[in-house]
Amino acid sequence: MAETLSQPALVVRNKGMLTLALMLGTIMQVLDTTIANVALPHMSSSLGASQNEITWVLTSYIVAAAIATPLTGWMSDRLGQRRLFLGAVIGFTVASALCGIASSLPEMVVFRVLQGICGAMIAPLAQTVLLNINPKERIGQAMAIYGMGIMVAPIIGPSLGGWLTETFDWRWVFLVNVPVGALCVAMLVFFMPQTEVKNRRFDFFGFGMLALGVGALQLMLDRGAENDWFHSVETWIELGIVIAGLWVFLVHSLTAKQPFVDLKMFRDFNFSLASVLMGVMGITLFSGLALLPPMLQNLMGYSVIFTGLLMAPRGAATLVSMMIVGRTSGKVDPRIMMLIGAVLMSYSLWQMTSFSPDMDYWPVIITGALQGFGMGFLFVPLSTMAFATIAPSMRADATAMFALVRNMGQGIGISLVSVVLSNMMQVNHAELAERLTVDSLAVQTQMPGLISGNAQILAVINGLVQKQSAMLAYLDDFWLMLLLSLASIPLILLLRGAKKDKNAPQKTKEELALERAHAMGE
């Protein structure tokens, strides 16, 4: 007997082709967050940026996306889903082309900000449209296909980025989006229908204050080391803007009738604690993606392509663990799965503290796979626990704030590990150099040319000292990430499960699939 299906909220001409277009747009956006990492060292030399400054290519995108994500719902109502999705994909494609022809770091940062603003709206819109075009009986199937499809991006991203950089040029990690974006736009024009436009009020003042505070915070973190931190007037000005912006946002949100964000959501213990955990995860999980490519290429001498291949198992392991979590969802306490993920993360980071320039590539593959596997056990259960006890009326605002916290954790984490790396390289270099004295037995027996002041010997020894000081600085960062990961474990134990109501309906397969796909998109 044929299954009787309910009517979807939005009837479309070709659901399969529209689903493919939605997946294509999301894959392009997700791919861009991973594909650029392996090309950072090449960008650095081409754009004349230091190792500290080149991370702006990552953080500018992340912060722009964090600020723009909460705008998606309001803009979708005001412009309609078709117009906004087309605008977001076109804007992302144009910004990608501009990134590909950027000739300086300031240009690149501006274009990455545009990319982040447009890219932030693609995934939420894609999921919304998918929910609208499928009958409720098929939502689980549709979201599972969508979730599995977009997981292709983090798996192939590093390898594709390495191959494009090595074979052509680093600029192609951005230019590759142009034909993909053009195809996506063409498919959307043909297959995505118009939707209803609603006139909704928006709290521009609250949004502006939050954007000002968040933007100034990231700018202070990115430029702090270059400006010698609080010895610089600029850093004090940026700190003042951070405090003023966030304070005004806080007061306004607590007193306005219809604030941009209803801060009452943080009265929910689970949501507040889960937000802290998501911020910590943003720091620890994504900082490694920015640290590993420069380390593998600059210290270990691996090619860009091989670096990308070494990072690919991380995404594949995440896909496997998410499939396991999907099968056990509702049967196993989410806190147990999160503890498994946190322990795997901590163990992999502990192994990374033993990295050395002379090791082979297997430790990189093993630790990356362990981290990816642990990531799958963290994201889906954490999203479930965050909204397990929060009031349904606050879920829309809570989802936006949860995404903001995650993105801010990523941005702060990348800036933090970059600052630690830069500072510790100098400290380690000074400490190692202090040991190379005339009275040192090692110098007298193994490096006598250093005593005589032989220029060639001096250059060789200085190169070795720089390499060792850099390796030690990377290990310092791994230790920092390990400590943060360990600190998150007690917080997981404090999370509370939702109170069981015998009269409450059990979650359907469709709802569970939506949770998994949402976490994959995150």
Please outline the major beta sheet.
none
Q: Strand content of the residues, in percent?
A: under 5%
The total count of strands amounts to: 0
* N- to C-terminal distance: 38 Å
> Would you tell me the overall average pLDDT?
79
User: Strand pairing plus helix content: what structural class?
Assistant: mainly alpha
Number of helices, counting only DSSP H or I runs of 4 residues or more = 21
The rounded Rg comes to 24 Å
What's the helical proportion of residues?
over 70%
Outline: globular
Report on the architecture of this protein.
The structure is a single chain. By secondary structure, this protein is mostly helical. 75% of the residues lie in helices and 0% in strands. The protein has 21 helices and no strands. The longest helix has 40 residues, at 395-434. The radius of gyration is 24 Å and the shape is globular. The two termini are 38 Å apart.
Describe the structure concisely.
The protein has 522 residues and is mainly α. The protein is built from 21 helices and no strands.
Fill in the keyword field for this structure.
522 residues, mainly alpha, 0% strand, globular
Task: List the topology elements.
Elements (H helix, E strand, L loop, with lengths): L14 H21 L4 H8 L8 H13 L3 H8 L1 H20 L4 H29 L5 H12 L1 H16 L4 H4 L1 H15 L12 H21 L8 H23 L13 H31 L4 H25 L5 H19 L9 H25 L8 H40 L6 H6 L1 H5 L2 H40 L14 H13 L1
Helix pairs in contact: 1-6, 1-7, 1-8, 1-10, 3-6, 3-11, 3-17, 4-5, 5-6, 5-10, 7-21, 8-14, 11-12, 11-17, 13-14, 13-16, 13-17, 13-20, 14-16, 15-16, 15-20, 16-21, 17-20
